[in-house]
Amino acid sequence: MQIREVEIVNPTGLHTRPGNMFVKKAKEYAATVTIIKGDKRVNAKSLLTLMKAGISLGDRIIIEADGADEAEAVAGLSELIASFTE
Amino acid sequence: MELTKQLLAMDAIQLQAEAADWKEAVRIGVDLLVKADAVEPRYYDAIVNMTTELGPWYILAPGMAMPHGRPEEGVKKNSFALVTLKTPVNFGDPDNDPVDILVTLAATDAKTMNESSIVEVVTLLGDDDTVARIRAAQTRAELEAIFATIE
Description:
The complex is a heterodimer. Chain A is α+β, with helices and mostly antiparallel strands. In chain A, α1 runs antiparallel to α3 (70-83). Chain A has 3 helices and 4 strands. Chain A is globular. In chain A, 37% of the residues lie in helices and 27% in strands. Chain A has a single domain, classed as 2-Layer Sandwich (Histidine-containing Protein, Chain: A). Chain A has helices at 16-27, 47-52, 70-83; strands at 2-7, 32-37, 40-43, 60-66. By secondary structure, chain B is α/β, with parallel strands linked by helices. Chain B has one domain: Mannitol-specific EII, Chain A. In chain B, strands 1-4-5-3-2 form a 5-stranded mixed sheet. Chains A and B meet through α1 and α2 of A and β2 and α4 of B.
């Protein structure tokens, strides 16, 4: 298992358009990907559950990946979050 | 819940509607909001244009869509519209097509959209049992009975 803490830097947070891009990217990996915010753990491959977590600008979240490509998943998804500007 | 109260108060509900494709399905939801004086008709064009450009980014889960545009694209009031379809339509999202529940939403600012409106929608649609009952509802009275149990 690989985990990494990241900070949300874009004004929209992981809502709608950026959220959808994040879910699409998460689905590219075979690993199970979970987002942890506080005491909430949600499946990163579903926009519905991701948005239930309500991830906004300034939040610190943990990306947890478990599976064959877990290292690539954590690296790729952290990079994507850092690249959001919307 | 604000979402269910507003749907009933604005009568922005169409159950078992018939739409030939995703654009017609989006149109039905936006028309409900236009009728309620909550958005301008151009809100529809904004959603369709953005969907054509970016793909349907607002598909939440299998069968469920949450079409919306930006506040500056003709939104007058924070509002929601619920549409269920007799025959599901494809939006071009292979993971989640076909879609038969649409909650169209409009918010006057991005903060309300992200921190309030969307949270309301995903809370309602995040409950599998509620979603199954909404899908099956044929009349406003049936829907009111469903909403009464979740408030």
